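Deviation from plan, reported transparently: heme C complex.
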Amino acid sequence: MAALKFNAPVYAANSRKPTAAAKACAACHDFNKGGPNKTGPNLFGVVGRNHGSVAGFAYSEAMAGKSAEPWTYEALDAFLANPKAAVPGTKMVLATKKAETRADILAYLAKLADAPVPFPAP
Ligand code: HEC
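Because the crystal trials were delayed, the predicted structure below was used instead.
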């Protein structure tokens, strides 16, 4: 598979169906500010916050162990592409193999913030 090298501006420009793509995540994640944790933690504001940092969610030891690391777009892209490779021991199993779909999802996650984190410059 020709994995697209992560390129945030290209991702932003290519994203077409963010809401549809994120439906796959909604089974386990709530996206609303102040929303609940479900099988997975609430994802409002995930871009820029630290790994494993939502209060009241029982993270895996693997995810909790990364709590000093922020979720950059690059880190999110790698995690979504292959959760078990990016965070060995994570409880999240869904891999989003298509780069185009990840682009849509990142565009969706980018909007879930009071002050959205801009995509990095090329
Ligand atoms: C079957 C349930 C399930 C689905 C579907 C799912 N996730 Fe998760 N997700 C989890 C669980 C459980 C965790 C906690 C992982 C851990 O503690 O190791 C998690 C963690 C995460 C994290 C880390 C959050 C944090 O606070 O550190 C992100 C980001 C994430 N998921 C994004 C997504 C996205 C985007 C999708 C859709 C493509 C998705 N997830 C689909 C269950 C799921």
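The chain has a mean pLDDT of 88. We consider this an acceptable substitute for the interim report.
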